[in-house]
Specification:
This protein has 206 residues and is an alpha+beta fold. It contains four helices and eight strands; from the N terminus they run ααααββββββββ. The chain has helices at 4-19, 21-28, 32-59, 65-83; strands at residues 98-105, 111-117, 121-127, 131-141, 144-151, 162-166, 177-182, 191-198. The protein has an eight-stranded antiparallel β-barrel. α1 packs parallel to α4 and α3 (32-59) runs antiparallel to α4 (65-83). The radius of gyration is 22 Å and the shape is elongated. 16% of the residues are buried.
């Protein structure tokens, strides 16, 4: 096979790119708008290559050991990426245990997720035609969570100053409460997330 080496090298690079996305994806910010479809296209190309290699192997009655090796490598890699698209290793677990997780899905399947860690760190991610990530620290007073030492990364933006945990205003067993984020004391509307895990505190009934 003339292109065996090229296929393997490209596949390894693609596999490494996927499995290190935790580190580089938040840094590219809006370039992620192009990264997601580009990675999906590469995946589709490799899938087509796999189908073609299987077809050629059948025609050869599986006599080429090199082709069989490429088929096995392609199958394992593509299956691993399909099952774990964010990477085999969950690097976020090393940043601390999640004691509260709140999320909200918007239009076009855009997702906002806030995770409070047991070490008083927080991670806020927004995935919508790309990914943005904000990290910082938090403290708790009553039913109020205060955010501090915010590191916005590439974007010079202000994060919410505090959030209030309260009981949900709707009947949905999936959610354990609401987490409403406020920019400041003048913010009367806030931005509401839905709590899916809460080992931090019981929600206030107000």
């Amino acid at each position: 096979m003339k292109y065996k080496g090229l296929i393997i090298e490209t596949l390894v690079i693609f596999f490494l790119v996927i499995n290190t996305s935790y580190f580089w994806m938040p840094k590219v910010d809006l370039l992620g708008f192009f990264a997601f479809p580009a990675l999906a296209l590469v995946y589709l190309i490799f899938l087509i290559v796999l189908i073609r290699q299987i077809y050629l192997a059948i025609r050869e009655h599986f006599r080429s050991k090199q082709r069989i090796f490429v088929i096995i490598l392609l199958t394992i890699t593509l299956l691993a990426i399909f099952l774990r698209p964010a990477g085999i290793i969950d690097f976020e677990k090393f940043s601390g245990k999640d004691v509260l997780i709140a999320e909200r899905e918007g239009v076009a399947n855009c997702m906002t997720t806030l995770k409070l860690k047991g070490n008083n760190k927080f991670v806020a991610k927004s995935i919508c035609f790309g990914m943005t990530e904000i990290k910082g620290e938090y403290s708790v007073k009553g039913d109020t969570i205060f955010f501090d030492k915010v590191n916005p990364g590439r974007n010079d933006r202000d994060y919410y100053q505090y959030a209030i945990i309260k009981n949900p205003t709707y009947n949905n067993p999936k959610y354990m409460g609401d987490l409403t984020l406020f920019k400041n004391n003048s913010d009367t509307t806030g931005y509401e997330l839905w709590i899916i895990k809460n080992e931090l505190m019981k929600p206030n009934s107000r």
